[in-house]
Structures are given as C-alpha cells and as structure tokens.
Design goal:
Blueprint: E1 10-15, H1 22-40, E2 44-49, H2 54-63, E3 66-69, H3 75-87
Parallel strand pairs: 1-2, 2-3
Helix pairs in contact: 1-2
C-alpha cells in the first residue's frame, strides 16, 4: 500500500553503525526494518552516513535509501547535511 504523503515527505536521517558493536548491530537491523517499511509505504529516505561499513551502506541502498557520506564531523552537521540533501 502506497501513501500519497510519500510524494510530499522525505525522511532525512543521520546514520553511523560500528559493526564490531553488538548494540550498533541491533540498531542497524532496526534501521533496515524501518527503512523497508517506509519505502514500501512510498516514502523517500535520505541518509547521511558517518562511517558505517560499506556492506551496510549497500544494504541500505538495496532497500531504496539514498545514502550520502558525511562531509563534516558531528551529529549536528550530519543532520544539517541530511536536511540539505532532502531539500535538493
């Protein structure tokens, strides 16, 4: 089922998951499930990633997430970059 809102709303987020951290691996799985649901409902997703594994980034991209590499350090900078990418 697709939502009409998906044409008007873009989900913008910052991501960073350390594959050697058990808690980050759990968080990454939750993110993948959330992204899959959002894409299935017709939403566009922009993620600015601060250094997750290439494997995880490729998984996000297969789901349909547009992933950009973080340019400047810091969570605030990554969020601003995500908003800017979504605006573009």
């Amino acid at each position: 089922m697709k939502s009409n809102l998906g044409e008007k709303i873009i989900i913008a987020t910052a991501t960073l998951y350390n594959s050697s951290s058990e808690s980050d691996n759990i968080r990454a799985e939750i993110a993948k499930k959330t992204f899959e649901t959002a894409v299935r409902l017709g939403y566009q997703i922009i993620a600015v990633d601060g250094g997750s594994s290439q494997e995880l980034i490729e998984e996000f991209e297969k789901i349909g997430v547009k992933v950009f590499s973080q340019i400047s350090p810091g969570i605030g900078n990554s969020r601003r970059q995500a908003f800017q990418e979504a605006y573009n």
